[in-house]
Design a protein that fits this description.
253 residues, alpha+beta, 38% helix
């Protein structure tokens, strides 16, 4: 899963992040990961600490464009002068994670079909498929506390996330973070595929699925991430954007 070493990464621009985030919304819709107008993907604005891009409240994922994304602060307050409607309560999770993890560009929290189903399984994701092993010991868990997300729960959530790649929000759905939009999107893709495979296998045999050993799961994870110079999404993202240009043009507008 490794590739030749990448040179130092050039600084990201707001225009690049806007295009990538709009693309991620469109691809989430194509994959059936959306939930009408709810759930969010958010990304930090390069060079503007404390400012983030998020979807207009009321837009469906398949109609989001780079220019329609709204700039907000960590509390979900619109700061770009657009007066666009946003969902501050929906940004509560994202704002807390962005504030706690400034190195993260993108936070994705969705109600994906298989991710929500996995959130109901006490054991969570197990090393039963290669995709799952990319996330071996990289997912925390957050107990369900209802619809409200107050300051105390935000603190518990970010503590449970720590420096991991994501959380399973019990009875709710998955959350992942990425150093780029592409990385976060690919981790959500891997999590959804791994959840689908595990849950289908559990249904087929009527119970828990045999997992590989801890040592093998850890070795596979280490082989996947390699020396850390190549991130998930580095190789996949441009081909995915080319496909999106063919199937859902307009997201770059």
């Amino acid at each position: 899963m490794t590739a030749p070493h990448h040179s130092a990464r050039p600084p990201r621009t707001e225009a690049q992040v806007r295009i990538d985030l709009a693309a991620a919304f469109r691809m989430a819709a194509i994959n059936g990961w959306d939930d009408t107008i709810y759930t969010h993907l958010s990304a930090s604005v390069p060079g503007e600490p404390g400012h983030y891009l998020i979807n207009r409240f009321g837009d469906t994922f398949d109609e989001i464009t780079a220019s329609s994304l709204v700039k907000v602060d960590v509390n979900g307050k619109v700061v770009d002068g657009s007066g666009a409607p946003v969902n501050p309560s929906g940004f509560a999770i994202h704002g807390a994670v962005h504030a706690a993890r400034p190195e993260v560009e993108c936070v994705i929290h969705l109600h994906t079909p298989w991710g929500v189903a996995l959130s109901m399984v006490p054991g969570g994701l197990q090393p039963t498929s290669q995709s799952a092993m990319r996330l071996h010991r990289r997912l925390g868990r957050h107990a369900y506390e209802g619809l409200a997300l107050g300051k105390e729960e935000q603190q518990r959530l970010v503590q449970e996330l720590g420096s991991l790649d994501g959380l399973i929000l019990e009875n709710h759905g998955p959350l992942v973070v990425g150093r780029t939009v592409a990385e976060a999107w690919m981790l959500m893709h891997l999590l959804e595929r791994a959840a689908q495979a595990q849950l289908r296998a559990m249904a087929a045999i009527g119970g828990a699925v045999p997992a590989v050993s801890e040592a093998l799961a850890q070795r596979t994870y280490e082989e996947w991430v390699g020396d850390g110079s190549v991130w998930d999404g580095d190789i996949e993202w441009q081909p995915l954007l080319r496909r999106l240009d063919r199937t859902s043009p307009g997201y770059r507008d």
